[in-house]
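TASK: fixed-backbone design
INPUT:
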């Protein structure tokens, strides 16, 4: 099969492109700077100059493909510059899906996120959860708009699209704020541990598998949460400590202190740059829960993600090796 993968130079998209090649498929992608995607080209990925915010650049690469994986997105929680979030997540998604429709591509998989529901306030939601009215984090807001106001209406109009919703994705190759937190933990520099934050954790390899299952078995018009175990950040760090032997050093902090610090940093960052780990967006994200059930994906797709302990052990061993820590060998 010949598949186009947007975001193939990124974390999830890169893993997906490599796995599709490994399984004998042809993979096509677009990149703003094709010369920087040499590792993908070496694997046989067909790379075209293009950008999802430039609709005309998509038509050539998407012509003649058997399926589409739209993975590309803006996900820089904690970043000072949020100017591209709407254009990439909303307009970019609209561009990709409209070209898919115009070219009559037989099937597509769109990477949404569990964050479209915002703070779930401790509830473990499913795919029927409604769109919140307001958001405090730009990533959540723009991905929610793309999901509810672009993808779902086009599916209702007959676009043969399946939506997958990863939870918190971790694993080797991650570049998100969560990786920075893990590195600080391993170096015993983690300042605080939120007693509020909880996530639906999933190793990147399981997220890749969830995408492929959605293409192979997913029903067009349906949405599937493809996270793994639901764990608080505090409990996940206990799992990490058990897996690595590195003690958790951060002070446990609850909702009220986090809210106060968030309000302070929201004012400060308007005047001076602050580290991403201390931005108001990051603090809001660790004073919230993003938790959902993968029961539908298990039932209909055969999705079976690994336990959190197994995934964290592999991921943190990888990071320990990069840091030159004793015990970091695999």
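OUTPUT:
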């Amino acid at each position: 099969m010949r598949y186009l993968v947007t975001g193939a130079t990124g974390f999830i998209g890169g893993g997906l492109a490599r796995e599709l090649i490994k399984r004998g498929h042809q993979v096509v992608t677009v990149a703003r700077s094709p010369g920087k995607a040499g590792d993908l080209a070496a694997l046989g990925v067909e790379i075209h100059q293009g950008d999802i915010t430039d609709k005309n650049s998509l038509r050539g690469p998407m012509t003649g493909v058997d399926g589409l994986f739209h993975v590309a997105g803006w996900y820089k929680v904690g970043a000072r510059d949020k100017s591209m979030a709407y254009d990439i997540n909303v307009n970019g998604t609209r561009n990709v899906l409209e070209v898919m429709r115009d070219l009559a591509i037989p099937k597509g998989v769109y990477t949404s996120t569990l964050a479209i529901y915002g703070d779930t306030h401790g509830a473990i939601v499913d795919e029927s959860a409604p769109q919140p009215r307001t958001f405090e984090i730009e990533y959540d807001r723009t991905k929610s708009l793309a999901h509810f106001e672009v993808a779902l209406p086009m599916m209702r109009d007959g676009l043969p699209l399946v939506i997958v919703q990863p939870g918190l994705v971790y694993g080797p190759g991650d570049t998100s704020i969560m990786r920075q937190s893990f590195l600080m933990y391993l170096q015993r520099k983690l300042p605080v541990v939120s007693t509020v934050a909880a996530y639906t954790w999933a190793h990147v390899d399981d997220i890749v598998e969830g995408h492929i299952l959605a293409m192979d078995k997913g029903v067009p018009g349906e949405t599937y949460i493809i996270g793994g175990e639901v764990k608080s950040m505090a409990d996940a760090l206990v799992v990490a400590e058990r897996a690595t032997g590195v003690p958790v050093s951060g002070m446990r902090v609850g909702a009220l202190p986090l809210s106060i610090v968030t309000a302070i940093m929201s004012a400060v960052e308007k005047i001076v740059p602050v580290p991403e780990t201390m931005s108001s967006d990051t603090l809001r994200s660790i004073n919230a829960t993003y938790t959902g059930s993968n029961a539908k994906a298990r039932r209909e797709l055969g999705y079976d993600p690994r336990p959190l302990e197994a995934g964290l052990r592999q991921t943190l061993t990888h990071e320990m090796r990069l840091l030159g820590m004793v015990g970091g060998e695999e």
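COMMENT: The CA atoms of residues 76 and 176 lie 7 Å apart.
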